Amino acid sequence: MLEEVIAKLKESKKIIALTGSGVSAESGIPTFRGKNGLWKNFRAEELATPQAFSRNPKLVWEWYNWRREIIILKQPNPAHKVLALWERKFPEFYLVTQNIDGLHQKAGSKRVIELHGNIWQVKCTKEGKIFDNFEVPLKEIPPLCPLCGALLRPNVVWFGESLDQSKLSQAVELITECEIMFVIGTSAIVQPAASLPYFALREGATVVEINIETTPLTSQVNYFLKGKAGEILFELDKKLNSIF
Ligand code: BJW
Questions:
Q1: Tell me, what's the pLDDT at 215?
Q2: Is the pLDDT assigned to residue 7 strictly greater than 70?
Q3: I need a surface site. Which of 48, 49, 114, 195 has the fewest CB within 10 A?
Q4: Can 2-28+76-116+163-243 and 34-73+126-156 be said to share one CATH topology?
Q5: What are the sequence ranges of the domains in the chain?
Q6: In the β-sheet with 117-124, what is the strand arrangement from edge to edge?
Q7: Across the strands, what pairs with 223?
Q8: Res 32: pLDDT
């Protein structure tokens, strides 16, 4: 099966990878759902919603501060590294990620569309200005805007909020034009990202899913490669190099 995927990859010009939190699992960052998922000790709606933030910004910021303390110590794993390598190998390789941890960029990826924002950015709740912020731990919780003193929020997309429409449109455009799409380490249930592979399928692209478990998408894809993202991508890249 790996050989067939390699053959498709080699004959494709436009290549997309859609990643989810499973890609960072081998770096030691918990996924959202499942056995050791981030939601395990918290209810999503208590923390990752605008309502939760209005109700208790301190609690929500404490959760993000805790996650930033974990993420800052983590390094890209072979999955991030192979995807960064593919960007250099294939002139029309694009990465669309639901992850907010910044590990794709840390591995060297440049053409990255971050659908759900970035944990290293904060946004002023009054004026909407976005700042980079790498302070770990945060000196002040909740943090305040250095310009106007209003509350800052993490620059991420919570449930019930719209994604950045220009990023989403760009992702949809790339996906509808691609010849092969890899869907890696996502439970494929959170919309609208979960719909993206169906755009590729509808246009006749080959869709390859890499996951340790099946998802609602699995029965629809052309290839399901069961296993850890780092191991499978490393294996694919090794085979690719031997025939490239
Ligand atoms: C490995 C591995 C290894 C492990 N190797 N694999 C239509 C129908 C129903 C509901 C909706 C709908 N449209 C919108 C909604 C509501 C909602 C939604 O989708 N809810 C679902 C739960 C049903 N969507 C939204 O609200 C979105 N907004 C929107 O659509 O606006 C318009 C609108 C609003 C309201 C109604 C209708 C329209 C916004 C979604 C924002 C998601 N935000 C979060 C938090 C980001 C900030 C933060 O990090 O704190 O994004 S939630 C969380 O889920 C995070 C993730 O990016 C996202 C996806 O999770 P992911 O990455 O797939 O992680 P897991 O844990 O679910 O899966 C990990 C996978 O990895 C598993 O499959 C493992 O097996 C695998 N794995 N180790 C390979 N080593």
A1: 98
A2: yes
A3: 195
A4: no
A5: 2-28+76-116+163-243, 34-73+126-156
A6: 130-132, 117-124, 152-156
A7: 208
A8: 85
Q: What is the pLDDT of residue 160?
A: 94
Residue 44 exposed, middle or buried by CB count within 10 Å (0-12, 13-18, 19+): middle
CATH homologous superfamily for the domain 2-28+76-116+163-243? TPP-binding domain (3.40.50.1220)
Does the domain at 34-73+126-156 match CATH 3.30.1600.10? Answer given as yes
Kindly give the distance from the C-alpha atom of residue 33 to the centroid of ligand 1, in angstroms, as a whole number: 9
Average pLDDT over residues 92-120: 98
The reported pLDDT for the residue numbered 177 is: 97
Least confident of 28-32, 177-181, 210-214, 232-236: 28-32
